[in-house]
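Slide 14.
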Amino acid sequence: MNITWQNASVLQYIVCIVAAYLIGNIPTGDLIGKHTGHNVRQEGSKNVGATNVMRTAGVKWGLITFAGDFLKAYLAVLIPRLWVGQYSYCALLCGLAVVIGHNWPVFFGFKGGKGISCTAGAACCIFLWQGALCCGLFLVVMLTTKLVSLSSLMMVTLFFLLILFTVGFVPAGLWALALAVLAFWRHRENIKRLLNGTENRIGHSKK
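Slide 15: predicted structure.
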């Protein structure tokens, strides 16, 4: 699989990347929280991601939040795939842009989620079987350990390794590595709690 720049203009790249960032700004967790009478930025972990929505509003609404964040990232990457090229640098850059837009949304004071649902959506849009396999790993680890953070970090790590060995390091593996770095950075506090054994588990009230 060759990732290329395609025969596209600079304007196409700029439009797609900016659009992807703005799509990432769509506050799925906030919208679901308000619909259910919760302010997820003030409850639980105060994060707008699916996990906190699940803790504050229930499993159904957490899954809907995950689906919304997954689909917005999928759409943000699908646009350049259809407009610029199926396997283009533009699609990769938009995958990063939508995750960054979710994690650091300009319309919400750069305070967003941790980007795992968006990472899964972007990954599956470009590298379907690798992304789907990693989502499967996430599900297995989460159901086994009840630790969403551990599941997330294992997912992005496996995705990087799969892309590295099935597609190559430049540019796809480097892209997957960047997604993993973003995920690890956003989970740095979770990593500390995982190491000292105090990380909160799904099904347990947040201490």
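Speaker note: The chain is about 70% helix and 0% strand.
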